[in-house]
Design brief:
This protein has helices at about 35-60, 65-75, 90-100, 115-125, 165-170, 190-215, 215-230, 230-240, 265-275, 295-300, 305-320, 330, 340-350, 355-380, 390-395, 400-420, 420-445, 455-480, 485-510, 515, 530-540, 540-550, 550-555, 560-570, 575-595, 600-615; strands at about 10-15, 80-85, 105-110, 130-135, 150-155, 175-185, 245-250, 255-265, 385, 390. Strands 1-4-3-2-5-6-8-7 form an 8-stranded mixed sheet, sandwiched between helices. It has a two-stranded antiparallel ribbon with strand order 9-10. The protein has 26 helices and 10 strands. It has 2 domains: about 20-270, Rossmann fold; about 300-615, Farnesyl Diphosphate Synthase (Orthogonal Bundle). The structure holds farnesyl diphosphate and magnesium ion (MG). Magnesium ion (MG) binds near residues 377 and 381.
Length: about 625
């Protein structure tokens, strides 16, 4: 998020300094002319700021906080999101967003009223949350384009002087496909409910307002502003006019409205306009938010366990709900494939008596172990990119990376210990020893041009396939499989893991950094010989091999050398041969589970085996 200088009004971040109360002017009488609306709203909120939360809670019987929680949920706020709360007022919505992010993301609250922000800041400090407050104008936001993943606004669009300008600004600062979520008072479709609602606002709500602040006029304005505000189709119209696809969600019989708007790119906007039908209604929104395509074989394989995988993500974040673990959340949420937890869940849920809770905790533990190994592996390999993000040691230094790996590893074992299933604990302890053995053997084997296929396979069995096999084994144990089937499923995982790592090594030569989210040519530049390179050396005489690989010890990082080797491996057919070998392992994996009862999940096993060899990232 960058602060832009486009606004005439300089933004002012409130970072702990005393905020002076502006002087109180007398309220504007009667209807508020447009040009006077802004100073009027300023006076109103300055007057009621200290008691505004009381009024909200009492007048809505606590429903207002329930509605805000719905907004935060529907906005799908993730820990790494940059979130802007426009017209943040006393900060309730921003505080819920920051709480959901467990202090890891970036939450900015902006409001034009200093008295309201003072209340917000006080609450935020009491809760020890990190939120940056800005005093500024919602209709001229002081941020550059595409700065935020989510923009939220609660019960304030009614108070904007020019609604379209405000919405345009909110959409402008969102990244493409980012979401603007608006919570506003509603306009119930049922006329009787609508009349009763207005009667309530002009009587009960005004009395409550008077009792808590000693003033009538602010609450007369608030009641009128609800009555006069646009209907849901009109709000949707405005949102569409500022390049947003919109969905309307009435809450509590329409007493409150939520608008979920997705920022469209220019192309999407023209498509949506050409497909628009003027008779579209609230029930049938004109344009649905854009969803990324979900057709890959991995996505298909994960469909039956999607709910459990989401529970694993929640559990992972719970395990990391400690200030020392905050730095690693970006990596956990950076979009890893979650293949290992998926295998725990799949092998468990295909069993005859799955222990769902234990499966979710075990799947969480294996993802923690996997992330620990990645952090340590990236130090060893001096890699700079992981899951399209800077590696942990690049971002936070090697000391913290070593410790964070150990922290995640111990967190995983604490979780496993709580399960009190000694078999699961035993398997995972063995796996961790094997992972280290594999890495040690890979380091020992560096620069050995005479490395054989069987030696390579032992290394990747230990450093990669052991964990994948262990995931299947513990999943099967918790799924209630018989010992023989557990052995078959462990062997399935082993073969899948071998296929998976061989393809990883092929992609290191043929892949694309953007697609992979990590650097390419990263094996050989550390002197590690992978299967396609071993196959290449087998096509050469010793003299040819030594000549081709001469720069390996001194200049292995030279991009020209690495590209030359990758091209030689491709033209010698070595990469294709390695891919065929991976396909053989995947086929064996498939055969191993053919005889086992899989509770209707055979398709998912098949898709995973296909994915292991067809993947491009
Ligand atoms: C991938 O290697 C291998 C691993 C991720 C395993 C690493 C294991 C350790 C560092 C042992 C530490 C163990 C614990 C329990 C903390 P790769 O470099 O071929 O894969 P890449 O291309 O994804 O980096
Ligand atoms: Mg590596």
């Amino acid at each position: 998020m960058e602060v832009s200088t486009r606004s005439s009004q300089e933004p002012q971040a409130l970072c702990g300094q005393t905020i002076l109360e502006p002087s109180l002017n007398s309220p504007a009488p009667g209807p508020v002319p447009t040009e006077e609306k802004r100073p009027f709203i300023q006076r109103l909120f300055t007057r009621i700021a200290p008691r505004y939360d009381w009024f909200n809670r009492l007048a809505s019987c606590g429903l207002d906080q329930h509605w805000r929680k719905t907004v935060v949920e529907r906005a799908g706020i993730q820990p790494n999101h940059r979130v802007l709360d426009v017209c943040a007022g006393t900060g309730d919505l921003a505080i819920l967003c920051a709480t959901r992010q467990r202090g890891v993301g970036l939450v900015v609250g902006l409001d034009m009223n200093r008295a309201m922000l003072t209340c917000a800041q006080r609450k935020q400090r009491a809760k020890q949350l990190a939120i940056t407050w800005f005093e500024g104008d919602a209709e001229a936001l002081p941020f550059t384009n595409d700065s935020f993943d989510r923009v939220v606004v609660g019960f304030s669009t009614r108070n904007l002087t020019n609604l379209t300008n405000g919405l345009r600004e909110m959409v402008r600062v969102l990244r493409p496909n980012g979401q603007l979520v608006i919570l506003e008072t509603g306009h119930p479709a049922n006329p009787i409910v609508w009349l009763a609602y207005q009667a309530f606002l002009f009587t009960v709500a005004r009395v409550v307002g008077f009792l808590v602040t000693g003033e009538w006029w602010p609450f007369t304005y608030l009641a009128k502003s609800v009555r006069q505000f646009l209907t849901p189709p009109q709000v949707m119209e405005r949102l569409q006019s500022v390049h947003a696809a919109v969905q309307y969600l009435p809450l509590s019989c329409g007493l409150a409205s939520v608008y979920l708007a997705t920022k469209l790119s220019q192309d999407q906007h023209s498509t949506s306009l050409s497909g628009m039908n003027d008779s579209a209604t609230i029930d049938r929104p004109r344009w649905q938010p854009h969803e990324p395509p979900t057709s890959s074989t991995l996505d298909q394989a994960l469909t039956p366990i999607r709910r459990e995988l989401d529970a694993v993500t929640e559990r992972l974040l719970e395990q990391l709900d400690d200030p020392v673990a905050r730095n690693v959340v970006y990596l956990i949420t950076a979009g890893g494939k979650r293949l290992r937890p998926a295998l725990v869940l799949l092998t468990g849920l295909s069993g005859r008596a799955p222990n769902r809770r234990a499966l979710i905790d075990t799947a969480t533990a294996v993802e923690l172990i996997h992330t620990a190994t990645l952090i340590h592996d990236d130090i060893i390999d001096q890699s700079q990119l992981r899951r399209a993000q800077p590696t942990f040691h690049e971002r936070w230094g090697t000391e913290r990376a070593l410790l964070m790996g150990d922290y995640l590893h111990s967190t995983a074992f604490r979780l496993l210990a709580q399960l009190q299933v000694p078999e699961v604990m035993g398997v995972m302890a063995d796996v961790c020893q094997q992972l280290c053995r594999g890495e040690l053997r890979e380091v020992e084997a560096r620069y050995r041009l005479d490395l054989r296929e069987d030696e390579y396979l032992e290394i990747i069995r230990d450093k990669t396939a052991s964990l994948i096999s262990g995931c299947c084994q513990v999943g099967a144990q918790l799924g209630g499989y018989a010992p023989d089937a557990i052995r078959h499923l462990a062997a399935f995982g082993l073969h899948l893991g071998l296929a998976f790592q061989i393809i990883d090594d092929c992609l290191d030569l043929t892949g694309d950094t953007r697609e992979l989210g990590k650097s390419i040519h990263a094996d050989l530049d550390k002197g590690a010989l992978s299967l396609p390179i071993i196959y290449l050396t087998q096509t050469l005489s010793t003299t040819e091999r030594d000549r081709l690989f001469a720069p390996l010890r001194e200049h292995a990082t030279d991009p020209e050398f690495l590209t030359r080797i990758a091209q030689a491996a491709a033209s010698a057919g070595a990469i294709a041969r390695a891919q065929r070998r991976a396909a053989e392992f995947a086929r064996t994996a498939q055969e191993l589970v053919a005889q086992i009862p899989l509770n209707g999940l055979m398709g998912a096993y098949q898709q995973l085996s296909e994915y292991a060899v067809s993947r491009r990232s």
